[in-house]
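Lab notebook, page 48
Experiment: co-folding of the full assembly
Goal: obtain a model of how the components sit together before planning crosslinking
Operator: M.T.
Materials (sequences as entered):
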Amino acid sequence: MLTNRQLQILQVIVDDFVTSAQPVGSRQISKKDWITSSPATIRNEMADLEELGFIEKTHTSSGRVPSEKGYRFYVDHLLQPISMSNREIGLFQSIFKNQIVEMEQVIRESANILSDLTSYTTILLGPNVSKHRVKRFQIVPLSEQTAVAIIVTDNGHVENRTITLPQGFAPSDIEKTVNILNERLVGVSLLELQSRLELETFNVLRQHVNTADSFIQSLRNVATFQNEGKIYFGGKTNMLNQPEFHDLNKVRALMEMMEKESQVISLFHREDTGIHIRIGSENNHIVMDDLSVITASYSVGNDQEGSIAIIGPKRMDYQRVVSLLDVMRSGLSRALSNKVNDGL
Amino acid sequence: MLTNRQLQILQVIVDDFVTSAQPVGSRQISKKDWITSSPATIRNEMADLEELGFIEKTHTSSGRVPSEKGYRFYVDHLLQPISMSNREIGLFQSIFKNQIVEMEQVIRESANILSDLTSYTTILLGPNVSKHRVKRFQIVPLSEQTAVAIIVTDNGHVENRTITLPQGFAPSDIEKTVNILNERLVGVSLLELQSRLELETFNVLRQHVNTADSFIQSLRNVATFQNEGKIYFGGKTNMLNQPEFHDLNKVRALMEMMEKESQVISLFHREDTGIHIRIGSENNHIVMDDLSVITASYSVGNDQEGSIAIIGPKRMDYQRVVSLLDVMRSGLSRALSNKVNDGL
DNA sequence: TATTAGCACTCTGTGTTAATGAGTGCTAAC
DNA sequence: GTTAGCACTCATTAACACAGAGTGCTAATA
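Observation: model returned without errors.
Model output:
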């Protein structure tokens, strides 16, 4: 168990290092006016904190830097919520107050504002369409052989695919197909769509219209969706301003990581709904060893729908980011839920 | 007018500098076996070439480097088409041969393959929707107050917007609206849609359905499109491997530039249809002073539809990139045109 | 017993100097 | 017109000294 003084010292080390990015020395700590001990005493305490694994030296005679364990302790025990400035509150309200219609726009703007306010990088995982339910099918013919298949979901998302029509497929066949699909599949979630299509409609379709196998295959194709939401970035280049990214190799590694969708998605921990913090190696990804990720999820209606992540250096302003994320999460949830419930 | 020997020397300087990124010295040039002169002679010629502005020294006693004027001359007079390797041809065919349905996927893949083959960055400007023509309108109600408006264009593109319905708007009103829109606006290009909507349909709508001003405003909104195609990137991080990007500030400036849509679009010169090369400061953008951009446009059907750009260091392999771009341009045009004409 | 002042020691960062090497320009010879 | 030879320039690198920041330890102090 840490003594009170040790807690104080750890807190100063983390706070100072977060703002200055420089190792913190005993003299620097002793200067804080709420710290009464002399540098020598602090050095002794620091030696103990180091032995306990909370802080590290970058070389024999340098000041101390928080270790991952140190950050973890800080985050778990020393973090205190802070309130936001008026400017910040204003910015948030500006996204949500306008009667905004396009969900995509709200999300895009949220990502930008978050990254502006934090000067870190924001990743926003959009609502996962696979939970949405089919509201309406539509097939619009483009030519003799091609058409566009459209699915509108209950909260206004539109999916579309180009499909190939069987030879000699008449407009009436299209109409029949659309009717069959709408009769049987409205209300089905996109996740189940593929199997329900297979079980309930293909046979019926074969009976009523001139269906070729290629057409069935096209329809299968229509019912295939990405099983993760769309990814939005904010402030991708903010990271380059952080001193830990003076190393070009790190920059490249991170940029390449962010180009790969699957790797980006693996940064999120979607198990749970609260705010989560992963520090450095806790992310299980070499590229992220010097970075921390803070995630939160927002909901639309009752479902947990999407996630927000902020990526910054391990030396991140955890307090601030956690507070901002919390506000943003609830703001987004409220804004998007209103939009959907708007008269259901 | 340059002598034959001067041409040879300039060519070697550009070619060698392109591959090595190191200033080229007289000895190095004399080693090429098709160069017969001695280093001293070459030095004299180089002094002349420098006086003419085709090459430069980085410092008093360094080898020579092509100037912008030198590159420009090289590109205008010394460039010779090269043929592609089997591997490359194979890669190209792999995109186009599969019966691909989604235009977006073809474009995305093209961008990736181009950047893989060149190890530069590719920007692909997708087809500009504003030239497409309306094939079908559709309005799908989501709730009492909201609906999704959908426009399908003649080549299968789908645009959609969420709109707000006037109070007490009945399903039959929606049907009437859709009918009026389809009767009057099918075949109109998206570019003209806004004005035609204004002139020809709003009055009719006011007569036949319970139209609120907010509804009219929503429809106006529906008819507003981005007037440039969507932007696709390939190999955004390739640039980081170029030695000229060892400078972090340049990296940041470039990355920030690529985040801004308008700046990216200004890189294209869409006046004309051929292959265009802009070298360094010819791009009129500080960030691009050390970079060259090669652009080409592809067409779908008869219209010039989209553009491809490859961004690399000024010290770029112009021959190779021009050849690749030429193949890609015609491949893309053919693939996308087939897709559209497919039975018109 | 806990704290603190003092001091030797360690490591980083910076500025200086010297040596090396690649390349040029010029002159004189071919 | 071409080329060999030579003096000169500049960038790069290594070696070295020195200042500064910080530590750990010891001995004195409250």
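Interpretation: Residues 318-341 of chain B form the longest helix (24 residues).
Next step: discuss with group before ordering constructs.
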